[in-house]
Amino acid sequence: xxNSIISNMYNYQKIEKGYIIEKNxxxxxYCESLxxxxxxxxxxxxxxxxxxGIGFFLAGISSYYHKNFLPFQTxxxxxxxxxxxxxxxxxxxxxxxSCFIYxxxxxxxxxxxxxxxxxxxxxxxxxxxxxxxxxxxxxxxKNIYLxxxxxxxxxIELNIxxxxxxxxxxxxxxxxxxxxxxxxxxxxxDLAVLxxxxxxxxxxxxxxxxxxNNQ
Length: 215
Fold this sequence. Notes:
By secondary structure, the chain is of the alpha+beta class. It has helices at 2-9, 40-65, 80-107, 191-205, and strands at 10-15, 18-23, 26-34, 112-117, 122-133, 139-149, 153-161, 167-174, 179-181, 208-214. The longest helix has 28 residues, at 80-107. Mean pLDDT is 87; it is low at 1-6.
């Protein structure tokens, strides 16, 4: 009977990226999930860099051995120094960069959640970080957990930077001067969606919304 009353008091709603928990039709918990490195653009960059890296590397090897290792182009007649060695360098660099992006994707770096707990009056942030060796010399991925009480929050800042490298980021501004990013800095979210999200979070926290637009 007690569990039935509790289940009737709380209402769980799944949204596009996260969930909302309501108590007596009032939002008490709002959770939003953040995408990490597992994005289509990263997959495309990884594939392109891998293919170009292998191509340049084989072209450099072809110039060194004077034997063509590529079926669609002849590089065996190219001088190894300096052209061939440059091809080897670019190929190796592109291949290593593709491996790095593959590692980011496999570890899903940057993914996590923002949980706004109105009952406890705290904001809980979690992020996936880079792996490292623990005290037992085990290679383990480190996760970052941060908790901030509502009393330490000054406002929510929507930072918009236009130009060649545009960015749109939500920040949680604290009284000690720290600016905690709530959204990934490398994702260009639709401005209307981000503004709606910022207004909703501001209302939940009963805080102010600061707009910082840098042209």
